[in-house]
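Thread: Newbie trying to understand structure tokens

Hi all, I'm a second-year student working on a class project, and my supervisor (Dr. K.) asked me to get a predicted structure for one chain before our next meeting. I've only ever worked with sequences, so writing a 3D structure as a token string is new to me. If someone could post the tokens and maybe explain what I'm looking at, I'd be very grateful. Here's the chain:
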Amino acid sequence: MKVNITRRSWIKSTTATLALLAADRMLLPACAADSKEVKTDHEPSKVWMTKKISPASLIAIYKALEHPAQGRVAVKISTGEPGGHHFLQPALIKDLVHHVNGTIVECNTAYAGRRSRTEDHLQAAKEHGFLDIAQVDIMDAEGEIKLPVRDMKHIKHNLVGSHLKNYDFMINLAHFKGHAMGGFGGVLKNQSIGVASANGKAYIHSAGKTADVSQLWDNLGEQDAFLESMAAAAQSVADYFGEKILYINVVNNLSVDCDCDAHPHAPEMKDIGILASTDPVALDQACLDLVFAVTPSEGDDNRPLIERIESKHGRHTVDYAEQIGLGSRNYDLVMLE
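---
Reply by user tm_fold:
Sure, no problem. This is what the structure looks like when written as tokens:
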């Protein structure tokens, strides 16, 4: 069964309608997640959702997009910093990776840790079980390439792992959760910071001040400039692949901390589900709306995650991504049952 709900009608809807989205929890109006009026001067993007989180539902929502991956397929995930355990588990993603004959791709980190060097990063991926299900490619193992950016307000190009050129299609498979610097992480972050080389990460985080990892922490960009740089970098990857890209957010293990954290805070919210779209802006916006819409209760408290997002002005990434033309915050939510 499919249930279509427009974002505008969702914002204006009754509790009874909202109950379709979460049978076991009460949701507040989705406008709680909005600081700006939703634009309606174009057709809404379609966002698919299932409340089930399983290998079968991940394949089902991928198929629902009717946008099949072809050629050499990169499946971009976070392999997770050793010590952490909230990252997408190999058992969950294995069937989808096999279904598309994909390669798991990552890039090295800009912070010191066990994923800052290719050899250590591959070992971490092995320990987390990813090498047991597929080939893992650290895309900046042999350097980086420059992608042009349309929005040059802060960055003049995007530095990505050179192996990106080896792929014809990308599945951006993100774990939606909080983030200490960006407020939250979803497909926009996974496509910007996640696809950037270590130097590229420094360039984005510094909002164009430096591409030298050793100089990053003395040159961090102003917060909104950093968020806007992420949006610009994500757009450059979308432009690179054109129609040959799709986006999936798994909204589970909703910690305030990222998978890059070796000691993440325990999740205080219940899992929400899996959402997918061909529009990354609509997808991240829909996930934000779902998080903000939860009425806090014992064992399902969205307030810490909301505070993390708000404290870092995290929604600005989505707002700015729409502003520069990466996608639309206006969407129709299609429930897949």
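A couple of things are worth pointing out once you decode it. The chain has eleven helices and 13 strands. The chain has a mean pLDDT of 88. Feel free to ask follow-ups in this thread.
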